[in-house]
Amino acid sequence: MIYVLKLIYSFLMPPGCFVPLLLLIGWWLYARVRRSAGIVLFASACLVYLLSIPLVGEKALQSIENRYSPPAVLQGDVYVMLTGGAVSGTPDVSGTGHLSGSTLHRVVSVAELYAAKPLPIIVSGGQVYADTANEGRLARSKLIALGVPAEAIRLDDKSRTTQENAQYSKQLLDKGGWKRPILVTSAFHMPRSVKHFAAQHVQVVPYPVDYKISRGTGWTGRLWIPTSAAMDDLSLTLKEYLGLLQK
């Protein structure tokens, strides 16, 4: 019964609700007004459906998440962790402001890596918009709260883009004399990040974290049910592929 309710719910809320709506309008146009207009609406309904199901969104995102895998043996002399979003002014245990889910996952992952192999950590990320928090400073505070010594952290709190992450991190790498950085960021963000670091003549050891898509689960009915999350996955995929085209 729970799955029937989820199916009904998916077609009552956006984006799923647009599919039957377009079909109904298309049927009316086809039968009462103009067949060609009805066919256009039928095609639009099919397109909305395809763009809003996990089968498309998740498979698209997985195509970029699978570009890199965590190395079996960790070899490097410094961690470089990139941030990816934060909100400001919200109450938190240690003050105000919150990291996005992806950034927090990166923070936890690099803290775990540090516990397994203590190396200096470069945290790279600034304040992107006037109404968002400084990502690097929040990430540094969280790392310290998770037990990473403050003296082990180097901070770039100016970067606003992945390109700037690479530029400012390169300056800190040169200053510290580090030659083999272990790059920690979300799996979907890793290909674009590697590209920008390569443009700065920095050869990184990719360590992708924060995977969004499950592995080894096969084909299930869930993949055919429209969700807004599936459209988010598709949008994120397009953003990353467009970023790879950036010079």
TrEMBL record:
Gene3D superfamilies: HUPs. GO terms for cellular component: plasma membrane. Residues 78-243 form the DUF218 domain. CDD domains: YdcF-like. Keywords: Membrane, Transmembrane, Transmembrane helix. The chain crosses the membrane at residues 7-30, 36-57. One of its GO terms (biological process) is peptidoglycan metabolic process. InterPro entries: Cell_Envelope_Assoc (IPR051599), DUF218 (IPR003848), Rossmann-like_a/b/a_fold (IPR014729). Coiled coil: none annotated. This is DUF218 domain-containing protein.
